[in-house]
Fold:
Amino acid sequence: MATWFVTATGTDIGKTVVTTTLCRALSQQGLLVRALKPLISGYASEDMADSDSGQILASLGEAPSDSAIASITPWRFTAPLSPDMAAAREGREIDFDALVDFCASGEEDVLLIEGVGGAMVPLTDRETVLDWMLAVGAPALVVAGSYLGTISHTLTTVAAMRTRGAVVAAVVISESVESPVPVEETVETLQRFLGT
Structure:
């Protein structure tokens, strides 16, 4: 059984693209895959099929419904803000221990946990996505874009994670709409600083 935590250098970078691609590819290999998106902000139930959670369900061959979304995303917030801010707008708080417990592995061959925003996004008054990753204890897949500035954002994110003891299993470059250089050059530069 393998668990992977999908995080990123920021929001709207491509975590869901990576998660859904892995869901499809691993399922096609005959593996039993479970994917979670425990937290989401900017969620509107009328757009559930297009939400990150809806896309994840579809990649696993499940139709999005209120109950299906709730089963993989119990913490849903309307405001498109960091989870701590979005929860506060609704007079709610995120129970960090419950969040970690929700991410426990089960009978699946592969468990994918998709984070929210970037690795340093606040979840509570004290905890960030990085704290969540560390508490779950899963190696991370860091999704980065190819936009101008991504090299600094990616190196900073990985350095912060490694400093705290997180295992960075891989960095995945998700091509941005505007890429100032070919993706291959971004990959070569990151490899030079991050290693293989």
User: Anything to note?
Assistant: The chain has a mean pLDDT of 96.
